[in-house]
Write a structure and sequence with these properties.
This protein folds into two domains: 2-157, Alpha-Beta Complex (DHBP synthase); 164-367, Rossmann fold (3-Layer(aba) Sandwich). It contains 16 helices and 14 strands. The chain has helices at residues 2-12, 36-46, 56-61, 82-90, 106-117, 134-142, 151-155, 219-223, 231-244, 256-259, 262-272, 278-284, 295-304, 316-324, 344-354, 359-367, and strands at 17-20, 26-30, 51-55, 70-74, 102-103, 123-128, 147-150, 166-172, 181-187, 194-200, 210-216, 248-253, 308-312, 328-333. Strand 8 (166-172) and strand 9 (181-187) form a beta hairpin.
Amino acid sequence: MHQVERAIFDLRRGLPVLLRDSEQDILVQPIESLDDGVLEHLIATAGEAPGLILSRHRLALLGKSIESETARLPLVPEMLKTERLNELAFGVDSSAIAQDILPASRADHAALTLMRRALLIPAALTARLAKESRETIETLIVQGELLAVEAADAERCFEAANGLLKRVSEAQIPLAEALESRFILFREPDGLREHVAILIGDPAAWQEAVPLRMHSACLTGDLFASLRCDCGEQLRNAVADIDDMGGGVLLYLAQEGRGIGLANKLRAYAMQDEGLDTVDADQHLGFGEDERRYSVAVDMLAALGIQRIQLLTNNPVKIAALTEGGIEVTERQALYGRLTKQNYRYLNAKSKRAGHMLDAVLENYDRLGGK
């Protein structure tokens, strides 16, 4: 998977990569780095006009309903402009498209999987190779100017990291809510994400079913006390609750914005300011309602020798994910932050659209007239 890891960084730098597949090789260019010069170079290199690969969530916004996760939008000449492609990929005010869409190939689907792994907008230009361009492409690969990756490997880029988490460093760090706390940093094999396990209290004195909180990183809420969410309060309340329960573990996971990354989270916030809720905003960008994957949490617990837990969460998906990963969840503890007029819409959407168990706190807020 070393080539896939290199491909992720090339894509984040705005460089194209070649995906090899038995059906057809394709050149992949992320939409995020697109300008007129990049577009012209892609067409000249491939020798064919590209298609636009979009997720089913984004296509639904464009008036196209599909059952598969991705599809290919052929691009007529008048659509081969940076401004138009950007609008199709992640614009707020997108009009329906008239032309038919085509099924995505395995390589097309792998291209969007790489975009997600690279924390880029899940949209990409993919160009088939003209016969007269193949020799040039192979020369670029040999010279190291273009990276070639097997589409099958790219398609597995999320699962390939399972079981390969590396324990890197650790230190004792007293916290305001838990004086006896030890931070252990874990790094994923591609080096893109680092996660932290915070061991609270003396592990020898923990309950048999260890109190556990899985907390997804939220820069705006955790660090800057944003009023748009309750993440920072949930984080500190979790540390205090675990300490009161005799100690346990908080897993601080690098999954900003429900797994879409900080850049896309800020884009989603801008869309929410236009009237969308948190779920619709993510889907307008082409993401699902929750892009997080919890296999990394299972790997961290395995490294810590923890198999039975009491989970502090309002999210049933976390319970299911840990159970599927072989962790026994003996019970659930609710965990809340303050509900305010600034975060009400966000928390209401999590409850009504994503199934989070927040009915009690929402009903109490409504009963008190939003106070």
